[in-house]
Amino acid sequence: MWNRRKDEPADRPMGSSSSAPASGNEGMPMQTMPSRFENDPPSPSRAATIGKGVSITGQIFSKEDLIIDGEVDGTVEAHDHKLTIGPNGKVKATIKAKDIVILGVVQGNVEATEKIDIKKDARLVGDIKTARIAIEDGAVFKGSIDIVRAETPKVAAPRPQPVAAPTAAQQSLAASAGTEPKR
Amino acid sequence: MAVPPQTRVSPALQQFVRSLDTTRELRLLDLGGANSANIQFMTQLGTRLYSEDFFATLEDCFGDGDYYENQRDPARIDSFLIQTFSEQRGPFDGALVWDCLQFLRPSLLEKTVDHLHRILEPGAHLLAYFYADDRSTVVPQYNFKINDENGIVVTQRGEMPPGQPFSNRNIERLFEDFSSTKFFLSRDSMREVLVRR
User: Fold this and answer.
1) How many other C-beta atoms are found inside a 10 Å radius of the C-beta of residue B92?
2) How far apart are CA B52 and CA B90, in angstroms?
3) Euclidean distance between CA atoms A47 and A18, whole angstroms
């Protein structure tokens, strides 16, 4: 079951304090509400949520943090955002997001540009592609792991002064000075 | 009472790691279920790791009722082998088997080792651990986490009767289709085995 934040009133109705703009996914059974995951808040303030009584078949694109605690069959993309599969979540989908936290069940390939966090009692069957990963004891994972190493920014080597493309006159001058490669 | 994790030197792991040709991308199979330590260690060597939670699949396939009796059921055996090996993208350049084989009855054990032989590249190594005390009625089940090239951290997660006695001779016979079997004896009750395909 979900854990409540210690500083959150126990009887506060879901979404009652939300003043967030409506989700971009019109027509989707989502609501924007404060996170109630104690350990891994999807965002400091709020995230869109697919509740545990909701089933969705199709594609989900989210432009904000997203919590899935219901059932989803299809694809889920939340580029640049955090996606949390809640403890009741059952997702059969290809998933792409910036950060992914899994507490429920996922079947499908999972790709995170930053980090994947598989919590105790979570179950993931599918291939992982990510920069970083954490798996708690008690989680079940079956699949391949592809760690994408962040490219270290190349140290700016002393670059030669930008040279304009040689003009025809310069080219003929160079040729006459014998700087052309020997054949 | 929970047994605290133990750090131990593992010469077999040391040789396993040294056997890996890290100049090319390798494919490794880890049957022990994924954990962050093993993923980090193996992927830093440049390998692609395929994780299979052997015990979770055993539990799924044989866990309802008599665990060992269920391992006689051909339909369950087939289902287990399909779930464990068919979806894996071998051939592999090495397999971390840990203590998984200890909890299999002979019929399932033989087929599992057959599959391992099939999915490993010639020359690839398989690392396995067996509890050395043949007279024990129950043997511990461990989680294995790689500390570094030389050692592991083992944490007991339960105990079970072994699937059968595993003497050195039995183990040699089990891997007779492989090209070599090397034993590493330790002062504790863990027997480390490195098998070359």
Assistant:
1) 23
2) 13
3) 10
Given the structure tokens 């007279």, which residue do they identify? B135
Total residues belonging to chain A: 183
User: pLDDT below 70 — which residues of chain A?
Assistant: 1-45, 150-183
ipTM: 0.85
Rounded Cα gap, residues A64 and A34, in angstroms: 13
Q: Which residue has the higher pLDDT, B2 or B23?
A: B23
Q: Give whole-number Cα distances, A150 to A94, A95, A113, A130, in Å.
A: 22, 20, 10, 10
Summarize the confidence of residues B130-138 as an average pLDDT: 79
Domain annotation for chain B: domains and CATH numbers? 6-196 (3.40.50.150)
Tell me which chain A residues have a C-beta less than 8 angstroms from the C-beta of B35.
135, 137
For an interface test with B, give the residue of A147, A148, A149 to mutate (most B CBs within 10 A).
A147
- Rounded Cα distance, A125 and B66, in Å: 26
pTM beyond 0.90: the answer is no
Please check the confidence at residue B165 and state whether its pLDDT lies above 60.
Answer: yes
C-alpha distances (whole Å) from B42 to each of A130, B36, B45, B153 are 15, 10, 5, 15
* Beta pairing, strands A140-147 & B26-30: unpaired
Question: Which among A135, A146, A147 has the least Cβ separation from residue B34?
Answer: A135
Predicted local confidence at residue A74, as pLDDT: 95
